[in-house]
Amino acid sequence: MERGIRWSAGAWPPRARILCLNANRGFLLDRDYLADSFFEASQIADWLAPASSVLQLRQLLAARGISHILFEHRDHGIKYPRALMDLMADPGSARLLYPTKDELFEIYELIP
After folding, report:
1. Which has fewest Cβ within 10 Å: 72, 73, 80, 88?
2. How much is the pLDDT for 2?
């Protein structure tokens, strides 16, 4: 993750609020963030669980001021709603800014 964080250190907009999923090293970020951890992961999944569509998920994220997603492709057994994957795959909802060379991390900007 450090490689993605190093890229991101100067690239995040000044007011970015980042949702880190499957990644709990947000302390490396220089912006406001919400992050999964062994303690918080279920809370984030629970928070997103009611979203049964991309529109509903976008509303939940907007309510918390989330502008970007840092997604780590590791299966930690967290059950995120299908709408999350749909959102990241929808070019009208999110723009892929940066995939790491090892394809382990992706950084998305949410489209307002």
Report:
1. 73
2. 52
* Domain enclosing residue 36, as ranges: 2-110
What average pLDDT does this structure show over 32-45?
A: 71
- Asked if residues 88 and 54 have their Cβ atoms less than 8 Å apart, the reply is no
Query: CB under 8 Å to 43, separation ≥6 — which residues?
Result: none
Q: State the residue for tokens 């450090």.
A: 2
What tens digit of pLDDT does each residue of 9-36 get?
A: 567 777 889 898 887 666 567 777 777 6
Ordered alpha helix ranges (H), 33-81: 41-48, 54-63
What is the pTM (predicted TM-score) of this model?
A: 0.84
Quick count: other Cβ atoms within 10 Å of Cβ 83? 22
Domain count, the chain: 1
For the chain, the distance separating the N- and C-terminal CA atoms, rounded to the nearest angstrom, is 26
Distances (CA, A) of 74 to 21, 23, 47: 9, 9, 20
